[in-house]
Structures are given as structure tokens and as C-alpha cells.
């Protein structure tokens, strides 16, 4: 058994309606080596009152204006002192109380990346269903040429290999962050265990066209232009095939 320190980083802005369930899920963990960090973007609602209410959970927090979501996440990485960083934003929750013990209780050494499955929830915290793209057991960085195959919030990365988020990308920097983390990793453990309940409606869902353009640029950077065009063609074909199949049912 290993007992690494996990820094759970939560980015907030006017999140009083959803933050409490995130902090409550952290509090319920039966793992005792957690650092909870709140990076708030100068909220004007009751967000900070909730942070103060959970002072027994929140290890450190700041509230100041930032240059967007990924700038705030980089601040979180700089404040983290844990062996691992885990991004769990306002409204996201840890699915079960034993998630971290599930990963670490049978381990004899610390892997570079741990990941698992994701459940999608609405603003009321009600489950909508599982994430459409299922993870495979032995993901490598090369698999991400087929898209975001694991939810960003269901990935724990060893802090010493965790990259900063690239401010060049406004929508898809999390895709590059996960891809680069896997590329740097030597030892990875994947599981079908449901790790995170993810609040539907992230910025990539609200800006699909821009997100796809940024993902294409990232894919071209890592995999080259021709392979990226080919795999994007395959993804479109797979999507159209699925739609046609559903219409026949």
C-alpha cells in the first residue's frame, strides 16, 4: 500500500450553486492524505462563504482575477504540494468515497498517471448517463489521436511530470494537457471504475467549432498533418455510421 498526497484543485467563479457538492464529495473520501485547493476568479456571489464553511476541507485558497480557466488551473498547479494533481471543478464530484483508496491500497509504487470512467450529471447533480467515449485499459499518448478518450477530471497525474496548460488554447488546453501527461508518463494504471461525476456543459461543449479547431492544431503538432487528417476522417465516418445505425432502430 502507498499513501501519496493528492492535491485536488477546484477552479471557481460565481459557483455558489454547485461548489458545495464538490467539497462535500471531497470530505466524504475515506483517504486521509488530501490537499484541497480552491482557485477563485474573484467571485461576486456566495462562493467564498461556501469555501469558508468547508474550512475543514479546503487546505488553501485564493480569490483574484485571472486570465481565464487555464490560467487559473496553472495557479492551482503552482500552489499544489501533493504527489499528484487532480482537477475537480465546481459542480464535479468524486463518484464514491473509496476512489483514492481503490487506486492506492494495492499499489507498491507510485505510477505516473491513474485514470478511470466518468458519469455525466446535470446542474442538480442528477446522473444523465455515462460518458459516450469509453476508456480502454491501457491508454497511451498515441491513442489520443482519436480524440479525448478519457475525461480530464478523471485523470490523476504525478505532479513532477504535470505540464502547465498552454495559454495559447482557450478551449482545448485540457486536451493537450492530458495528452502531454500521458506522453511523459512511463507507468500508467487505467480502470473501468467510475471516478468522477462530471457536470455537463463545459466550455468545449459550448464552443464546439472553436474546440475542434484547437484540437486539430494540437493533433497536428503531436501526430503530423496527414495522420491527423486521416484520423479526423475516421472519427467523422464513425459518427455518421452511428447516427445512421440509430435511425434504423
Q: What does this protein structure show overall?
A:
One of its GO terms (molecular function) is glycosyltransferase activity. With 249 residues, this protein is of the alpha/beta class. It has a single domain, classed as Spore Coat Polysaccharide Biosynthesis Protein SpsA, Chain A, CATH 3.90.550. 36% of the residues lie in helices and 22% in strands. β1, α1 and β2 form a beta-alpha-beta unit. The model has no long low-confidence stretch (mean pLDDT 90).
Specify the biggest β-sheet: 9 strands, mixed
Radius of gyration: 18 Å
Percent strand: 15-25%
Mean pLDDT: 90
Cα end-to-end separation: 48 Å
Shape: globular
Total count of strands: 9
Helix run count: 8
Please name the CATH architecture. Alpha-Beta Complex
Unreliable stretches, pLDDT < 50, 5 or more residues?
none
Q: For this structure, what is the CATH class?
A: Alpha Beta
**N-to-C order of helices and strands:** EHEHEHEEHEEEHEHHH
Instruction: Specify the helix fraction band.
Output: 25-40%
CATH homologous superfamily title = Spore Coat Polysaccharide Biosynthesis Protein SpsA, Chain A
Q: Number of folding domains?
A: 1
CATH topology: Spore Coat Polysaccharide Biosynthesis Protein SpsA, Chain A
Class from secondary-structure proportions: alpha/beta
EC number: 2.4.1.-
Transmembrane segments: 222-241
Keywords: Glycosyltransferase, Membrane, Transferase, Transmembrane, Transmembrane helix
GO molecular function: glycosyltransferase activity
Amino acid at each position: 500500500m502507498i499513501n501519496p498526497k493528492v492535491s485536488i484543485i477546484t477552479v471557481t467563479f460565481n459557483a455558489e450553486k454547485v461548489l458545495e457538492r464538490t467539497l462535500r464529495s471531497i470530505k466524504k473520501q475515506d483517504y486521509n492524505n488530501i490537499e484541497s485547493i480552491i482557485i477563485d476568479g474573484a467571485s461576486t456571489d456566495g462562493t467564498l462563504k461556501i469555501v469558508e464553511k468547508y474550512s475543514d476541507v479546503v487546505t488553501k485558497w485564493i480569490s483574484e482575477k485571472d486570465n481565464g480557466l487555464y490560467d487559473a488551473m496553472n495557479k492551482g498547479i503552482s500552489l499544489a504540494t501533493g504527489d499528484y494533481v487532480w482537477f475537480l471543478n465546481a459542480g464535479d464530484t468524486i463518484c464514491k468515497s473509496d476512489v483514492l483508496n481503490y487506486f492506492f491500497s494495492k499499489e507498491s509504487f507510485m505510477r505516473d498517471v491513474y485514470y478511470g470512467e466518468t458519469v455525466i450529471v446535470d446542474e442538480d447533480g442528477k446522473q444523465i448517463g455515462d460518458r459516450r467515449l469509453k476508456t480502454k485499459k491501457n491508454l497511451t499518448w498515441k491513442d489520443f489521436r482519436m480524440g479525448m478518450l478519457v475525461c480530464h477530471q478523471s485523470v490523476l497525474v504525478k505532479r513532477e511530470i504535470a505540464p502547465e496548460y498552454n495559454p495559447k488554447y482557450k478551449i482545448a488546453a485540457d486536451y493537450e494537457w492530458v495528452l502531454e501527461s500521458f506522453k511523459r508518463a512511463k507507468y500508467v494504471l487505467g480502470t473501468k471504475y467510475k471516478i468522477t461525476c462530471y457536470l455537463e456543459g463545459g466550455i468545449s461543449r459550448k464552443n464546439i467549432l472553436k474546440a475542434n479547431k484547437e484540437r486539430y492544431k494540437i493533433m497536428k503538432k503531436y501526430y503530423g498533418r496527414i495522420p491527423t487528417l486521416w484520423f479526423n476522417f475516421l472519427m467523422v465516418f464513425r459518427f455518421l455510421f452511428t447516427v445512421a445505425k440509430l435511425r434504423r432502430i
